[in-house]
Design a protein that fits this description.
The chain has 396 residues and is of the alpha/beta class. The protein is 32% helix and 23% strand. It is built from 13 helices and 22 strands. The protein has an eight-stranded mixed sheet, sandwiched between helices. Strand 7 and strand 8 form a beta hairpin. The longest helix has 14 residues. The two termini are 26 Å apart. The structure holds cytidine-5'-triphosphate (CTP). The site of cytidine-5'-triphosphate has 14 residues, from helix 11 and strand 17.
Length: 396
């Protein structure tokens, strides 16, 4: 059976679409999953505990301070489940989850949950379009939640528009897709670097670059989704459901990697590292001198981080580099891969304006050490490239 052995935690919040969840539960049970339901107190206005108990053949959880084992309920239930599905997700619960509020069992559970979460919102179309609701949804999507958007149609409140709970078949299929792929990187420890380093000039200025970190974030999110233990090292403040370390400079990045890399299985180095740093950083803000039209800042070379890491790499570890070029893409990428002793290099042409830096899209060429299979993608979302890259580099 498709879901045998899988444990699903199903959260129901207060909305009329709650009645449709009985059908979703039947699909899960028929596919062999063990389903435990947690309700917000408001959800009880729409479905009964008796129905859900009968359908799941399990206890139904509602109250935050219910009698559990010695462990608090939200820890117990979140530890044992493989996936958390919240459907329907109301605007109210979405707002609480996006802001870390734990005022009932369901919101406490999701805050303690560090595995994949599917959110299927359902609400009035005006509520769905509300800019705060949209901001919360974007925040959750960027933090690795899987959002199944509501559909257009006739709503229970009499309106027409986007707000109906997605078809339960769609939620079911997404659940199967995630649970089936979930384990392909289980047990792997993967380090991903993202964003452009910042080399200080004085307390207010730095030398930076145009990297947005999007490619690295997509890789880290995908690795996490497939079950890896992820450590994301980045120059950009982010909130993720896995370990993140914030750095600014190339030297800080090297120091963190030197410490972290030996205990990892792979390093995917998508960060744009500054090749040079300022030789003498001023302690005070540099003032413009009325008599000088030009100033000179002396730069010194930064360490090549990948070269340094490759020196301590063992045969069981993978090191993947990225390569930004404006000309002779493949030739330069191959030479960087050999020079830095990499297992793979991912080359992208940064002269093409509609892809690469800051864009959600990219076109990349993945080159392996043996140069036996050089693969160039079409223009794809960075999230799609991340999936493809992980499958390629970790294929047996
Ligand atoms: N890189 C690194 N340390 C540096 C510079 C780059 O580890 N000091 C890494 C990048 O993170 C990337 C790869 O090396 O994975 C290639 O980076 P890129 O900027 O394309 O090339 P460089 O080696 O910096 O060479 P150049 O700037 O001359 O093209």
């Amino acid at each position: 059976m498709l879901l045998s052995g899988k444990k699903i935690l199903l959260g129901i919040t207060g909305g009329i679409a709650a009645y449709k969840i009985c059908d979703l539960i039947r699909k899960y049970i028929k596919s062999g999953a063990d389903v435990k339901v947690v309700l917000t107190p408001n959800a009880l206005n729409f479905v009964t505990e008796t129905t859900l108990k009968a359908l799941t053949r399990n206890q139904v959880f509602i109250h935050q301070f219910e009698e559990f084992d010695w462990k608090p309920g939200h820890i117990n239930l979140s530890d044992e489940a493989d996936l958390f599905v919240i459907a329907p997700a109301s605007a109210n619960s979405i707002g609480k989850i996006a802001n870390g509020i734990c005022d009932n069992l369901l919101t406490s559970l999701v805050t303690a949950f560090n595995k994949p979460v599917i959110l299927a919102p359902a609400m009035n179309s005006k509520m769905w379009q509300n800019k705060f609701v949209q901001k919360n949804i974007a925040k959750l999507a960027n933090s690795g939640f899987f959002i199944i958007e509501p559909e257009e149609g006739e709503l229970a409140c009499g309106y027409e528009g986007q707000g109906r709970l997605a078809d339960t078949e769609k939620i079911f299929k997404k659940t199967c897709e995630i649970l089936q792929k979930q384990n392909f990187l289980k047990g792997k420890k993967i380090i991903v670097t993202a964003g452009g380093t910042k080399e200080p000039i004085d307390p207010v200025r730095f030398i930076g670059n145009r990297s947005s970190g999007k490619m690295g974030f997509a890789i880290a999110d995908a690795a996490y989704k497939y079950g890896a233990k992820v450590c994301l090292i980045t120059t950009i403040e982010v909130c993720k459901p896995y370990e993140t370390i914030k750095i600014d400079t190339a030297q800080e990045l090297l120091s963190v990697l030197t410490q972290k890399f030996p205990e990892s299985d792979a390093l995917i180095m998508s960060a744009a590292v500054a090749d040079y740093r300022v030789k003498e950083i001023c302690d005070n803000k540099i003032k413009k001198d009325k008599n000088e039209d030009e100033i000179n800042i002396q730069l010194v070379k930064n360490p090549d981080i990948l070269k340094e890491i490759s020196k301590i790499k063992t045969s069981s570890q993978l090191v993947v580099g990225f390569c930004a070029e404006t000309e002779n893409l493949i030739e330069n990428a191959v030479s960087k891969m050999e020079n830095k002793n990499l297992d793979f290099i991912v080359a992208n042409d940064v002269s093409q304006k509609e892809i690469g830096f800051e864009s959600d899209y990219n076109i990349v060429t993945i080159i392996d050490r043996q140069k036996s299979d050089i693969q160039t993608t079409s223009k794809m979302l960075k999230t799609e490239i991340a999936d493809l890259l992980l499958k390629r580099i970790f294929s047996p």
